[in-house]
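Researcher: We're teaching a course module on how sequence relates to structure. For the next exercise, students receive a sequence and then see the predicted structure as tokens, so they can try to spot secondary structure elements on their own. Here is the exercise chain.
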Amino acid sequence: MVDTLSSEARRDGLPALVARLRRGLPGGAPGLLGLLLVLLMAFSAVVPGFASLGTAQSFMQQLPLLGLLSLAMVVPLITGGLNLAIIATTNQCALLTAWIMRGALAPDAAPGSVTLVVMLALLAGLALSIVIGLATGALVAYTGVHPILVTLGTKSLIDGISIYLTHGQAISGLPSAYARAGNTSLLGLPVPFLLLIAVGVVVGLVLRRTPFGVSCAMIGSNLEATRYSAVDTRRVLVGVYVLSSVLCFAAASVMLATFNSASADYAQSYLLVTILAAVLGGVDPFGGFGRVSGLMLALAILQVISSGFNQYGLSPYLTTAIWGLTLIGVVTAQTVWPYMHPWRTGKGRTG
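Model: And here is the predicted structure for the students to work with:
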């Protein structure tokens, strides 16, 4: 059995593995949903107080930042690219926004002035994200350099500028009204969580229901064929990285409301987790396929694992390791599944 499995795996090669990764767990999205339900039941049975309103509220407060960053990563992934600068972009947008908020407001500023300055600061952060996205997209689209190298360079540049201008210090002292607005609830749900849901729906519709989204998938599947199909691939690629950077700005807005400060060092550990969540959710790491619904289920799974083990008493430093183990388990399950159920795939032992 082992020899047969290994020979089949060698013959199928990487394309077959990627095809299985697209489905996430065995059964696709239902498999992800099934795993989520199993985890919820398991932690509820083992961890006292896990099935509580407090856990649900903590879940909805912690998920938006990682979720928005993951959306920013998924968009270029679908085109076969990558954006390693999402954390750097998020932090620099947050730093600019926080600097304007703190510097332009007097301690006794009227509520109307506070609202105006906050709006101007947010617009400045949005404008910065667009500029970064345009520059990154243009480099990817017009130089032919691989997105990994381009975004690695822009990441280093952005981080360097942020650290130089702030001397590595955090900018705090934001208007309390902004923090309150970011931590309020609507219909019993935190505003950042509602923002994540709204942005996820919009991005999902853009990627699946618009010519731009279809072009993204086509580029990820075959760039040259897409170019010969009368699609302006350069323009699409620029738009991809602009959209990714704008999603980073949305993450920066949530970060400011959550931490009430900004720093070049925040959320650095989230970079690889966003890729992990995307692949776990069925996004093709080589481009051409990906659904926001799968990403959201993967994010929920990762957050449930994190919350469950934290409440169980394990060190939070083990969270990333546990997430990595989850991804390994999914890849292993998708590799072994066809050979354990040959009547579903036509594979397995033949004699």
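Model: If you want an answer key for the exercise: DSSP finds 15 helices and four strands in the chain. The longest strand covers residues 171-172.
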